[in-house]
Write a structure and sequence with these properties.
Radius of gyration: 24 Å
Largest sheet: 11 strands, mixed
Helix content: 25-40%
Distance between the termini: 84 Å
Structural class: alpha/beta
Oligomer: single chain
Shape: globular
Number of strands: 16
């Protein structure tokens, strides 16, 4: 059709002055991305930081993302990595795909700055499930305080942590397993290369995570591959500091045998056979034995405790802590009875040292329920946080906390009865009370305001203290203070010190190092 003179003029004007793109634009080293506006923020979702780990790239070190031409939309979250179950009770199961190595960014929209602190979130889920797109993890509220927030995905379960003798043989580093950790390292390398395009300072990167995310951070602090990629670390309710004698399957040779057994269970006697299977098929056999970290020569050559004890960890300021009632959101207490207490523990955890079981009296059913929650609190989270703080404070500033606030979880929700349980601090730290219609109190809002600012201040300076906040004293090994995050916020001694010392003594004996006396003075409030 012949154009009219008016249409011709309009077409020429379009070529000279094309209409403005709808969303904010950033240029990464692989291509240009277009995000979306969210008030004062620019939000970018689903940016690839590595090539899809599919086909022959399954169980290999992540490769560089494939470059693209033109402008790539970054408005929608990418699928989560392959998994079964959910990371938090009550969570909506995410869409999943093996093509999952993407990250998301929340950044102040103002242009011209490249000096903002960067906070990189590593989600939890037992290294077996979880999603970087979970609304509770969105970085919008933190970014409004002047930081760039990045949430990253990483391979999970057998996709992320399978060790196998064939994989070790084909590796240039004589190692296998820990592909999920390599994904985290690749994401941090991407941040170092591209942070400035989003207003972030690549020389001021904080990694923060909860549960398995915190455990990952303890391993990244111990990994020579992650050296120089981050400058502060925050670990919430996680860590990997127990003696390797308690987890010998984490050693490469044992983990390889587990990988062979896993392949046999799937009828796949070789890595070639496993690589040929559809991703969903790899979740049809039990995956627990191939969903854990591996002590191997390349990524994690020694357990984090050993790296810290030798002064060989990545030396960065640390903020670390745990919650007062961690186990209440993770453990079904309805069947706990004093008569079966010790047998139930053995079925769940294997034979525990008698000294540990004896430290938690369980003479009545009510006492047994309390003993079960307290033991699992210390076993799974409390001792790790305390050990991490003590080891870290030998070389650097450490700020330790103990979260005690009970959110107003509705009685008819999946969170009923959680108390200050595992996950509870996340609503406050991300300042996301507004995501739910629960009856939050003024004390809840004060705590969310304070926690989000402590976290942002730490990312900015390595010190959480700032104007308007209750003072947070640095932790000193053995006799220092933790900050109780509750109502009120106040310094306090090491919580549950008596039972933590029992774990310390048992673990020391397993390592062949005798326990030493631990002082408890040094804080204005006594430890509970």
């Amino acid at each position: 059709m012949k154009l009219t003179w008016a249409a011709t003029i309009l077409a020429a004007a379009f070529l000279i002055c094309p209409p403005a793109l709808a969303g904010p634009i950033a240029r990464t080293d692989a291509g240009v991305v277009e995000g979306v506006r969210d008030g004062p923020l620019a939000v970018y979702r689903g940016i690839p930081f590595a090539a899809p780990p599919v086909g022959d790239l399954r169980w290999r070190e992540p490769a560089a993302p494939v470059a693209w031409q033109g402008v790539r939309p970054a408005a929608a979250f990418a699928p989560a990595c392959m998994q079964t179950g959910v990371s938090m009770p009550g969570e909506t199961p995410p869409q999943v795909s093996e093509d999952c190595l993407y990250l998301n960014i929340w950044a102040p929209a103002s242009r011209g700055r490249t000096d903002r602190p960067v906070m990189v979130w590593i989600h939890g889920g037992g290294l077996a499930n979880g999603s970087a797109a979970m609304p509770l993890y969105w970085g919008d509220r933190l970014a409004r305080q002047g930081v760039v927030v990045v949430s990253i995905a990483y391979r999970l379960g057998p996709f992320g942590f399978l060790a196998h003798p064939e994989l070790t043989a084909e590796s240039a580093h004589a190692s296998s397993g820990n592909y999920g950790l390599l994904d985290q390292i690749a994401a941090l390398q991407w941040v170092r290369r591209n942070a400035a395009a989003f207003g972030g300072d690549p020389g001021r990167v904080t990694i923060f995570g909860q549960s398995a995310g915190a455990t990952s951070i303890s391993m990244l602090m111990a990994s020579p591959r992650a050296k120089g990629l981050f400058h502060r670390a925050i670990g919430q309710s996680g860590g990997l500091f127990e003696p390797i004698q308690l987890a010998p399957d984490y050693l490469l040779a044992r983990a390889e045998r587990q990988g062979v057994a896993y392949g046999a269970a799937l009828g796949a006697p070789s890595i070639a056979a496993l690589r040929s299977r559809p991703a969903a098929d790899l979740l049809k056999a039990p995956t627990g034995s191939v969903s854990h970290p591996v002590i191997e020569p390349y990524v994690l050559p020694r357990p984090p405790f050993d790296a810290f004890a030798a002064g060989a960890e990545n030396d960065v300021p640390l903020l670390v802590g745990s919650n007062a009632e961690e186990a209440r959101s993770l453990t079904d207490l309805s069947g706990v009875r004093t008569a079966s207490f010790e047998a139930d523990l053995t079925r769940r955890w294997g034979a525990l040292p008698p000294a540990i079981v004896a430290a938690y009296p369980h003479r009545t059913d009510e006492e047994a329920r309390r003993a079960r929650t307290d033991l699992e609190r210390d076993l799974r989270f409390g001792w790790d946080a305390w050990a991490w703080a003590r080891l870290g404070a030998r070389r650097r500033p450490v700020y330790a906390y103990y979260f005690t606030q009970t959110p107003p979880f509705p009685a008819d929700s999946a969170h009923a009865g959680w108390g200050a349980g595992h996950f509870a601090e996340l609503w406050y730290m991300f300042d996301h009370l507004g995501q739910t219609p629960w009856p939050w109190t003024p004390a809840d809002r004060r705590l969310a305001w304070a926690m989000s600012r402590y976290w942002v201040n730490f990312a900015a300076t390595g010190n959480p203290n700032g104007p308007g906040l209750p003072p947070w004293p640095a932790f000193v090994p053995d006799d220092g203070c933790m900050l109780r995050l509750g109502d009120p916020i106040a310094p306090d001694g090491v919580a549950n010190l008596r039972t933590l010392q029992v774990f310390d003594a048992v673990y020391g004996q397993l390592r062949g190092s005798p326990p030493r006396p631990l002082r408890t003075a040094g804080c204005s409030s006594p430890g509970r």
